[in-house]
Amino acid sequence: MAERQSSWGKWITVVIVTAAVIGGGIWFFHRSHDDAPMYQTIPVERGDITQEVTATGTLNPLTNVLVGCQVSGTISKIYVDYNSIVKAGELIAELDPRTYKAQLEQAEANLANARANLELQQAEAERESELFSNKLVSSSDYDTAVATLHEAQATVQLDQAAVNMATVNLGYCKIYSPVDGVVIVNNIEVGQTVQASFNTPELFQIANNLREMQIDSNVAEADMGGVKDGQDVDFTVEAYPDRTFHGKVRQVRYAATIVNNVVTYDCVINVTNEDYKLRPSMTATVYIVIAQRHSALRISNAALRFHPDEGTNNMTGPESGQTFAGPVSTGGQHGHGQKAAHPAQVHTVYVLSGQGRDVKLNPVQIRTGISDGIYTEVVSGLKEGDQVVTSSFMLGSSNSRPSASPFGGFRRF
Fold this sequence. Notes:
- The chain is an alpha+beta fold.
- Helix 2 packs antiparallel against helix 3.
- The two termini are about 55 Å apart.
- The protein has 4 helices and 18 strands.
């Protein structure tokens, strides 16, 4: 009986030891594999890069004329309306002219009276001159006759000026278009009284040549360093979300606009509007092209942000790239975020070398050029096809697989 118990004890001991060895091996296996870092990479490739400055602005006609009235009166006739096409010098409205006609007639009557008085004074002066020559009148009487003549001449000039003013005021009763264009605002109706006592009332607003327009855009002060005259501009408006319009920077103005401590500058952009789709006061989102490269060597901006100690927080992507497992080689400086619009900056990225479990993560210093916010130009330090690391994760972590990325997927080694 004692031998049987001893035999069972030996078997139990063997089973326990075997289970412990197997369990320890499984734990060690998982631990060694769970602790292996995995890296997501994308290849260095060639492509186009366009660096842009984004701003908003308002579409306006190149020439926008406010047509007013210099005299007061009642609107008697209107010959145009909204969207009417007018020519320079075309009659577009009239005021009731009766008051100004009466003023002109009165001025003309005063002028005629003054001229008649001038004729009388000229005759009187001639007689006084003849009598003074024969010493039949005193010099004071002669001087009085000459002064009266001069006064009559001045009165004629004053009355002539009054006639001229009355004629001009009567002419103001007819309102003409000062330019060729389109009526975009009509502020009056027939029978309405306009008062020009203190300022000129605005009757119409005429846009000259809507085929050529401009965008007054508000560019942030941080973006002003790259904006220059003559640069190409793409822009969109909400009315046509699927269409991209084009223009050119005409002028970058020095005057600043400050709203809530935000400083912006007016960038004037010339726009061609051949099909008249664009209308005044539309809001435009503009993209000013400040730099452009064709077939440039480029990498994803995610590679510039990668740090070997980042873990899995920045893992994004569909399953179509490459993933490598292996130890991290030390040395070199870590790269940080790259700021667009600062060409020829130095950054550190990480490139994988080796095969399978011998893959190593090596830092490489590169010089970068322009960026479009997604890709950055590589000036030197990398060649086409190099696998640059964009993110990493640990097999044993809860985030054992990264989420989808627009740049690549995964393969295990």
